[in-house]
Design goal:
CATH class of one domain: Alpha Beta
Number of helices: 3
CATH architecture of one domain: 2-Layer Sandwich
Structural class: alpha+beta
Number of strands: 5
Order of helices and strands: EEEEHEHH
Strand order of the largest sheet: 3-4-5
Helix content: 25-40%
Radius of gyration: 28 Å
Distance between the termini: 94 Å
């Protein structure tokens, strides 16, 4: 069982909703890599969590992307260091950042219109460009 994951304010993911396992990491490490299970797979049970509201879960599900498995669990894999404890902390921090990004709803876009002056400047520019092209004239053939 893991410790509680504090996200922001009163938002806390209970430790019983987080599970992790260790495996042998790939990459450099010499003989040590064959002996020590330093890679960490952190799993967060998104459908069963009580810490997030429905809309927050929906936003988190959309942001999780490929980290979401068939059961709806978010899987964070970390093998950046050769130390299991540091990899677990890295995975927890990455999960915290992902959840933090989904807590607040995105701001709605405000529709804007170009000002009357901007429209006039645009039309003047188009007129000048058209006049320039007209003044070039046609290329005559020498017969």
């Amino acid at each position: 069982m893991a410790d509680d994951l504090h996200i922001r304010g009163r938002t806390v993911i209970p430790g019983d909703e987080l599970t992790w396992s260790a495996a042998r990491a790939s990459g450099p490490g010499g003989q040590n890599v064959n002996k020590v299970a330093s890679k960490v797979d952190l799993r967060f049970d998104l459908p069963a969590t009580r810490a997030l509201t429905g809309p927050q879960k929906t936003r988190l599900r959309a942001q999780a992307g490929l980290r979401l498995d068939a059961e709806g669990q978010i899987i964070i894999v970390s093998q950046v260091t050769r130390d299991q404890k540091r990899n677990l902390e890295d995975a927890r921090e990455r999960l915290r950042a992902l959840i933090l990004a989904s807590l607040d709803p995105p701001k709605r876009r405000k529709k804007t219109k170009p000002s009357r002056g901007a429209k006039r400047r645009r039309m003047d520019s188009k007129k000048r460009r058209g006049d320039l092209k007209k003044s070039r004239g046609k290329v005559g053939r020498d017969d």
